[in-house]
Amino acid sequence: MRLAKNVKFREEKFGGVLFETRSEKVYTLTPTAAAVVKQVAEGRAPGEIAPALAQRFEADGTTIEREVKAFLAELAEKGLVED
Amino acid sequence: MNDSAASEALAAPLYVAWQITNECNLACLHCIEESGPGKAFSDELDREGALRVVDELMANEVPYLSFSGGEPMLHPHFFEMAERVTSRGSQLKVETNGHYLTPENCARLKALEVKAVQVSLDGATSATFGRMRVRGEFDRTLQGIRNLVAADVPVEINFSPARFNIHEAGRIVDLAYELGAASFYSGRTMFTGNAVKAWRHLEVEDADYVKYFETLAAKRDEYRGRMRVSYHEAGLLEELRYRLHHPAALLIILPNGLVKLINALPFVCGDLRRESLADVWANFRRAWHDPRVATFIDELAADPGATRGLHKWVRV
Prior knowledge:
heterodimer; A: 3 helices; 25% strand; B: eleven-stranded mixed β-sheet; 11 strands
């Protein structure tokens, strides 16, 4: 999985932004969402993202896995990531 | 995940529209920038200054830039600047009149992986095109578009309506599709720049705009999934009133490094020859609250002709 061709990610103090330059649509991201997108942008496989974040945020692995999966599905549905 | 971002919260702009030169081979009736042959600013950024600005934009992770003009491909360092943008991972759109889109230049644009090239095509026939785009060559522009398509560079077509070409609205969208464009853009032609002097030839009646946008709506549906048809129905005043409370995360850089608040206002909020991007961005966010900006927009409601003075810059 990677960011779609016309999508750019930038970290911000509040988390981050995803900018879809074809439609010029901007999505703001919470710190947790930005952490997920950063992992995607760095080329991490979906299965690697939840364990990495669970460790970083000291969160329950099952919960974060479920949330990451749902968030990645949302990104895919909006065409912001692609395989 | 919210589908909006207040520019005030961002560390840097998301989009920079850079008019890299005011020089142009054409002298279009409606040119907002009053570009034309010999119209380069006397103080346009030199190579070193332009590349320094590119580097600063890249260092601040500005994800999306456009190069326009004037005719941007007349800039002596156009390709060097473009390469410096795309090689750093930002996306670049080039807005051109299409007269320099030779097969060789299109191949270079493809190699640079520009996001898209937007070509102005203000007529579906040589006669209407030539009336709007003075000194322009219709066939040469079409060939330039074909060269882009052949080189696999995404093409966007931009159309500015006037009283003498608006009847071609449907035909121009069809032509854009036949040429292989990925997108078609239009909106209302603004009463500013060269258009002020040529307004009697350009002005479109409200009733004609209604029909025009109906035609574009039908074309948007007709080409859905094949070519994106986008248009902006809002008038200038409506747009400015919205922007006053929701400034876009967009900086407009002029050929000499000055930075405008928005194209349709005369206000300049920075100078990249002397100030850092961070300082200009901070001032951009503050400047939208300057009372002179709201006052100008209010005055525009009473006198739409206030846009005559957009080139008399006011520092805020």
